[in-house]
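pipeline stage [seq->struct] | target=DNA recombination protein RmuC | organism=Actinomyces viscosus C505 | residues=186
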Amino acid sequence: MSSSAVLLPILLLLVGLAIGAVIGYLGALARRTTTHQSEGEQVAELRAQAAQWQARAEELSSRTQVAEERAERDGSVLRALAPVRSQLEQVGARVESLEKQRAEQHAALAEQLRATALREQDLARSTASLEGALRSRSARGMWGEVELARVLEASGMMRHVDFSEQRTIGSLVQRRGGPAGAPDAV
């Protein structure tokens, strides 16, 4: 039930009560003043009071009418805004869903960043270890020999068929007058 439907009967009841109270008051006043005043004065006074009460009743009636019109306008505005309210509720639900997804994605991204940081630390340790190993002459030499074997195999040669590794040829080199040593591959 709308507020205007409840407000109208209450206001009409109040106006009726006010008019009844005025009439009762005027009747009591008329009885009381008959002994003190003349009839003409009493009638004039009663007419003045009746005019005041009638003006008050008209004022209350106009206020009632204004209140009814306002309630009707408010009701029509609420009815017009009902679809907007529905859409706002849907938008609110969607925003809440998106916020939940964003929080989940943020948590996943934070986890990936932590894992990446750990991998970066491991990579830095491995790099430092590799750097230390490559500074050693013997490690560099062994690495060079392994790479040479890979290059030869990649060129289509087969180990122990087309080439062999670390064969000493000290006797050949010494006969020619050069330093004795072992070639990486022959």
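stage status: PASS
auto-comment: Helices lie at 3-33, 39-135, 137-154, 170-176. The radius of gyration is 55 Å.
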